[in-house]
Amino acid sequence: LDVEVEIISIGNELLIGKTLNSNANWLAKRISSLGLNINRITVVGDDVHRIAAVLKETITRNPKYIITTGGLGPTFDDKTFEGIAKAFDSTLNVDVKAMEMVRRKYYEYAKEMGREKFELTPARIKMAKIPEGSEPLPNPVGTAPAIKLCQRKLTVFALPGVPSEMKAIFEESLTPILKKAAGNLTFYESSLLVTGIMESEMAPFIDEVMHDNPYVYIKSHPMGVERKPQIELHLTTTATNRATVKNRISRALAQLTEIVQTKGGKIIHPNT
Amino acid sequence: LDVEVEIISIGNELLIGKTLNSNANWLAKRISSLGLNINRITVVGDDVHRIAAVLKETITRNPKYIITTGGLGPTFDDKTFEGIAKAFDSTLNVDVKAMEMVRRKYYEYAKEMGREKFELTPARIKMAKIPEGSEPLPNPVGTAPAIKLCQRKLTVFALPGVPSEMKAIFEESLTPILKKAAGNLTFYESSLLVTGIMESEMAPFIDEVMHDNPYVYIKSHPMGVERKPQIELHLTTTATNRATVKNRISRALAQLTEIVQTKGGKIIHPNT
Fold first, then answer.
1. SS (H, E, C) A121-153
2. CA of B163: which chain A residue's CA is closest?
3. Nearest to B99 by CA among B77, B71, B130, B74
4. Which terminus of chain A has a lower count of CB atoms within 10 Å, N or C?
5. What is each CA distance from B175 to A16, B27, B30, B141, B183, in whole angstroms?
6. Percentage of chain A surpassing pLDDT 70?
7. What pLDDT does A227 receive?
8. Residue B40 and residue A44: Cβ atoms within 8 Å?
9. Among A236, A231, A226, A241, which residue's Cα sits nearest to residue A268?
């Protein structure tokens, strides 16, 4: 039933902690809300061999979609296309459509900057050198085109790392495709903030409620410390229609609420 | 030379985008600053098989340290120890030291809450059931002990997912070990904010400077848009003493500064 997605975040800045991986978080939220299931997120540095290795490993897990972010720009350390080509044993070629996308951008930039001409330098042409068989996706807010590469049942999307560009391309080019892939799948979540009961006391009751509501996943997040306990119970479910997911969550919430009250706890901020 | 580390972040909340992976970011920053090298960060859900699979794959890459976060609590979805035991083909046993750590915490909580007694329920005992051969590490701010598991040249640390607990255990138990492992290795970084030059124009000069400074890694981060260009050039290096790393970075910074000025660009905010 599940449509599986994997995210690969590319960039040394993520591995040295210079940059917080907010791209993966944004994608995870958007993709889950579309009803698809994220299986794994992998962060790897700007290295062709490592990018290719991560891609190959990911492919063996048979996700329907792989989405990469980062590494599409004009500098030497932008190595995502090279990594993809290596993983798929293909080559990089200047793509006519991609080249036209890049050319048009620099034409516009030159005009806006009052420059008479612009050059298509190797660094700029590099952004249009895409893996054989892939299709460029327009970048509405930046320069580097993204790509879409289909191979048998797998589709790989490579998006830029600049958040505004990544988001714009996702909404324009990926959302329609992923929505269609999800079909009627709907993801629904809700949570309950519980106080006055320790997480370790709630544990067996969470088990009980999950047992009684087999399609609802409940995760407890301790928000305070054990002695001033405050626990967020976060409920999620996915199903093929909106009524079902809402019903499932309501039933589980009602059961949890009753247990919490019976055990002398309080619900601070229920949001159904 | 490099001492390699891999981070494994465990938790469904990360895969649905409910939680931003600030733990991995914090760890990456701390570990890099200690002079060690992070090779990969993997995010996986609360599933024993998947946790074990990620661990096994990570082990094949031969890092010196694997640090996991998340999944040590009292609830059913805390599956990290089980995943580690599965990956190492070992078993979970109630550890005497770990049990004493847990018992003492609940004794204190009960006292503070004015309760006369407390029970060591299965959910609480679960936190002291650790993989055979591992050693519990005290949790100065929470309940669940972390663990350290050595096997041949590899050391695995499993830390809790609650940020305050993760950080406290890292500083108390991991920092001394990692510092020693890094030896004299020092990581140094600096950056330069450049305006008036497009990233695609800077690209060949970054190549040039990196060629002339083979131990300095330079990464350009576009901060504005190509037509209102603002680029952060981020320089990093690692060496066995502080004078060397500082020298290397200063030389590369000086060369970059000269190029930027020659090409009509401006440096907005140099921080050396």
1. CHHHHHCCEEECCCEEECCCCCCCCEEEEEECC
2. A223
3. B130
4. N
5. 16, 11, 9, 17, 12
6. 97
7. 62
8. yes
9. A231
In the numeric block, the tokens 């090298």 are attached to B37
Two structure tokens written together for A230: 């405050």
User: Which residues of chain B have a CB within 8 Å of the CB of A31?
Assistant: 17
Contact of B208 with chain A, judged by CB distance below 8 Å, is answered with: no
- Cβ atoms A124, A106 nearer than 8 A: yes
Q: Cβ contact (<8 Å) for A123 and B200?
A: yes
Structure tokens at A86: 């290596």
Residue B228, pLDDT score: 73
ipTM confidence score: 0.93
Q: Is B123 within 8 Å of A162 when comparing Cβ atoms? A: no
How much is the pLDDT for B272?
Answer: 45
- The 3-class SS string of B210-232 reads HHHCCCCEEEEEECCECCECEEE
Facing residue for B227 by CB, picked from A77, A113, A234: A113
Per-residue model confidence (pLDDT) at position A226: 59
Out of B18, B29, B42, the one facing A17 most closely (by C-beta) is B29
For B67-124, write each residue's pLDDT tens digit: 999 999 999 999 999 999 999 999 999 999 999 999 999 999 999 888 889 999 999 9
Verify whether the Cβ–Cβ distance B41 to A43 is below 8 Å. Answer: yes
- pLDDT < 70 regions, chain A: 1, 225-227, 269-272
Burial A206-240 (b: 16+ CB within 10 A, else e): beebbeebeebbbbbbbeebbeebbbbbbbbbbbe
Whether A165 has its CB under 8 Å from any CB of chain B: the answer is: no
Residues A50-74: pLDDT tens digits?
Answer: 999 999 999 999 999 999 999 999 9
Query: Using CB atoms and an 8 Å cut-off, which of residues 63-82 of chain A contact chain B?
Result: 73-77
Per DSSP, the three-state class of B60 is: helix
Structural Rg of chain A based on CA atoms: 23
Q: Which residues of chain B have pLDDT under 50?
A: 272
Interface contact flag, B46 A124, Cβ < 8 Å: no
Residue B48: predicted pLDDT: 98
B124 contacts A200? CB cut-off 8 A: yes
- Three-class DSSP category at B236: strand
Q: Does B6 touch chain A (CB under 8 A)?
A: no
For residue B162, how many other CB atoms are within 10 A of its CB? 24
